[in-house]
Every structure is written in C-alpha cells, then in structure tokens.
Request: fold
Amino acid sequence: MKIALLSDIHAVTDDDDSDSNSLRMGSDRMSETHPFEALSELFRKESLKVDLLMCAGDLGTKSDPKTIEFTWNELNKIKNEFKIPNLIATPGNHDHDSRSKYSEYDPRGFLQTLNPIFPCDFGDQNSHFWAWNIDITSVDCANILVLNSSAHHGISQEFLHGRVTEITINKALEKVRKVDSKPINILLCHHHIQKQEDINISEYDAMHGGEKLIRQLTSAHNYDWMIIHGHKHYPKISYASNETGQSIPIFSAGSFSGDIRGNLGSRVANQFYLIDFEVENFEKFGLVGQISAWDWAYGRGWVKASNNSGIPHKTGFGYQFQIRTVLRDLKKLKENSYQSEDLLLEIPYLKFITYTGLNQIKKASEEAKLFEFDIVSGTIKTISKIVEN
Reply:
C-alpha cells in the first residue's frame, strides 16, 4: 500500500503583505516554480501510483478561507488527475479561526462547508467527526483514524497547543472496535503526539492527552499502529512506547511549501513524501516499510532529498533492532563486500531501519572492525570488510 503525504502547505493570498516565503495562490503555474504543478510533474515523471493522498493539516495560513479552499482544491486536482482512490486530510491550527478573524463565534464553520467534503467523506455529512473530533475510515488494507487536534481552538488559550480529550479518546476506541481488522492502522493528526526535543519545543507544540491516546489505542486493541502528523515543519521518524513494550512509529512530516527560512531552514527543506507499506513483510518484521522523500528546489521542481534535508530520499521505518543482533548477523557474512541488493538477501530487515538507525549501525560496525558502510541518501549502497594491517 502506498500513501502520498504532504503537510503544512500554508498557502498565502497574493496580497499578503507579510514577509512570507510560502506558496502564493497566484504564482505562475510552471513546474519549476509552483509546488503543486511540480507535484503533478513528479507523479508523471516517476509514474507514481498511490492508493491514498494524505494531508496532515495547515492547508491555509492564519485561517484565511481563501487559502484553505485553494489548497483543498489543489489536493483534489491531484487526486482526480492521477486517479487516486482516496484523499484524507486533517485540520491544522492554521485552518481554524481561533482568533475570530473571519467569524465571531465559529472557528471551524468554514471547514464544514468545503466542497468536496472535508477532511474526507466519512459519510452522514461527517457529523461524527465534527461532533466528537474524530472518525475512522477504511481504505484498501488500512484503517485511518483521523483526529482534529485543533478542535478546541477558539476557547480561552487553547490555540497555544493541540488537545485530545477523554471523551474523544473513548469515541476513538468505540470506532476502532466497530471496524474490520486491517494490517495497517494509522492515526492522522496535526499536532505532535509527544514532545520533540531536538528543536525548541514549548507547550505549543505537543498535544495535551496525546500519550494517553497512544496508550489506550495500543493496549485496548491488538493492532499495529503508525502515527502521522505535521505542525512544526521538522521532518523526523521516531517511536512511542507504552506499558506493553510495543513501539509505535511516528512520522513527523515536514512542510510542503510553508516558509522555513531562518534557523529551521538551515536544517531541513520543504518536502513531499511517499510511504510504501510492505504488507507481505508484516508477519515477519511487524508494520514496516520505506519512505521516499523529495525536496522543493525553486527553479528545478521536486528533486530527490539529500542527507541534509530532514528525511533523506530513502529511509526504512518500523523495524525495531538491537545493535548486538545486527553485529552478530554482520559477523556471519562470508563475502568481503556486498552491494545493497545482495546484502538485503542476507539481512533483509536492514531495509526497514530508519536512516538514523543505519548511521548508528555503521558507527558500531566500524568500531567493531567488521564492515565499512557506504550510505547515500539514507540507503546502504555497499559494505566492505575492514582488513586490519
């Protein structure tokens, strides 16, 4: 199953007088300079076939209805042009009128009027989603639980953070119990489900009640879960754990076309992702797969992500490894060198280890004088046995 993912588009109107480097609605529709036009070109060039188009929130900027509608239309154009069966989104904090700029009393009313129906067609005019801030839909071999983590924005100081309440968690559990079991189960939300400490994190960044939601979902149901969110424009793959010992992959998506200048821009790029779940390997390795990433390069379009972009062009996810086990398997190798394809025949789980995990394995292997690793854009190209003089 393949998912095309983008997040934090942050479109702005042409007359926006802020010093924003985000996508302007009236930009020339050239594939070299317009992220959505370039995305269509990427789909054609790479012959991308996906089962689901997903957006992790912040379609617009500062709750401007024009910017939200613009992005929702662009997403639907991609869905229709490339015959993608499903489009699923979640609202972000910039999609709610939390400061009553456009409505005196209804922060999310505009979202409820979007056409096609937003954030996806759950049926019954999405009444459950807007009433309880959560709903679930089944696509192909996956259940997608969609949470509105900005649902309480507009009340007091709630715009400072995300939230999932006890009531919403209980409704989530009810929904999960009623759907047929699927090999893939995804929680889609906008805010960080847990604190991320490698960038400056304040209360604004993490979701209140998020860790309890993880704990309840994973302990109450024998399903494998993955969490996908956006919000801080800092792409990262991490893991959450609970009392059962399970580790849940969390994919924090970078921004598709939002302004990332300054300190953040020196560390990451605007990115688009393809998540490929390898269901045939689930029984042996758990919920595993690979993520492909592309960087936005103004004047060139979407290009393969580099090692310094946040997420490199290729990375695995989902496999939980121990260094000593990997070193043991490396010691069993009989040849002096291996190309990537041959290495994966011997140690197949390496394909599903994150880029940061591979770098850890590289360091441990070279310190143990076993193999030198050549890792390019998140992928092992070759390994060569270390011969001591």
Q: What stands out?
A: The chain has a mean pLDDT of 92. Residues 2-317 form a domain with the Purple Acid Phosphatase; chain A, domain 2 fold (CATH 3.60.21.10).
